[in-house]
Amino acid sequence: MPRPGLRHWPFLLPVVYFAVICWLQPADRFVPPGGLPAGDTRYPVTGGWARVVYEDVDNAAFVLRSVNAEQGRLGGRPDEPDGIEPADFPEYAAGHPPLEPRYFTDYPPLALYLFRGGFRLSGPPAGPVNSAVLDSNYFNVAHYEPASEFDRQLWRSFRVSQRIYSAVFLAALLGVMWLTHNGVGANGRAKGPVWLLVLPGVLYFAGCRYDILPAALTLFAIAATDRRRPLLAAVLLGLATALKLYPLVVAPILLRAAAGSVREAVKWCAAFAVPLVASYLPMLLTDGVQGVLGPFKFQMSRPAEQWWIFYGRVIPAGLALAGGLSSLFRAVVLLAVVGGMALRRPPDVESLLRRCAVAVLLFISLQVFFSPQWWLWAAVLLVPLASRSPRLAAAVVLSDLIIYLGFPVVFDLLAFNGLGADRASSDRVGEALRAGLVYARAAVWFAIAAGLLRQELKAATVPAVTAAPQPVPVGVW
Predict the structure, then answer these.
(1) Cα 225–226–231 angle (5° rounding)?
(2) What's the pTM value of the predicted model, to 2 decimals?
(3) Which residue, 8, 77, 225, 457, has fewest beta-carbon neighbours within 10 Å?
(4) Under-70 pLDDT residues of the chain
(5) What is the pLDDT of residue 43?
């Protein structure tokens, strides 16, 4: 039997991980996707291997949106700036091109406020920022090595900002681990093995992408629902939705669990709307309708990205087309499944977690592009269910490793031709690796969803006397 202190070893890993990435990171620049110049003695790690430990590209996007907003610019530029060859960017920046009327951002207001707060705490230098930087693609921010003293100070503040973000993200992960360790449900129900939350994929993306925040808020909303705090649960889910829109797919399920009458449902919806209104209204007043709708328009108009999605492999490729019957099909399938799971009130917290996990996995699977950090959305819902199911625990491990192998490992090998062969051979091997990982992920996710639905069907056969939930008090926080 393990010593009492050793049982909590997973809680140390996010702290150790944060310390390691802080040691590896250059203080006054970001690490580009291809790595830092090999043999440069200024950096602890050169080449591309730092990328398998942490990633800076999204951090470059966070600080770029922040510095634009802090310069007093209006958001809402409809198109993402084109990237410039990294070797050409210093010369381009020296020309100080004219600023665009608005800057580009693809984040909702609450996320932008979070990033701006971290940027302010970093102590950025006073003074105007080069227009070429402000209107650049964030990949150029990741690649750029500052030349002037002002740029070095600015990029130092970027690095401090990134560390603030990472500390917040990893604190959210620790919060999820704490809740999972003690039980998502009331009276310690739905406990899970927290070591599943420090697998490579979860730890990697929790440290460098902000998706752990809405994932954590969603899980805490489920916990509040089971503790009969429906309005608190609604506010928490509203905060999650203000950061990322995906929690909308679980909102009907949580509403069904929390509200037993029309009056309770109206109160729940009002509480859910409070964080959304509170975050979007200031942006509407400062940046106008264009500033609010810009991120939506960008995300909704993104074309199909064929590398990692299920379309063309396990789903017919034609269903990935924008608009028309393809979009209608995706919407109908999602609404039908989520609506079906919201017809009957979940009898317990395990049922609530199962239904939300199925809804999230389906939502991710139907998207026409794939971001690997979305795995966090599902992982936090699955781990609390894994203590009683060794098969589910094994599936979580497999899914995490598949995600991590896809990005950064295989993605970087393909992007930077690390396969050690000519380009034609590399492309053939790369396509085989991509296809294999996509099929493996589809198989594991299908097995997870099928197992969860099977458990739901078994739970539905429990006599109503034992399955009926207790009444939920109205207006309890």
Answers:
(1) 25
(2) 0.94
(3) 457
(4) 1-7, 416-423, 426, 462-477
(5) 74
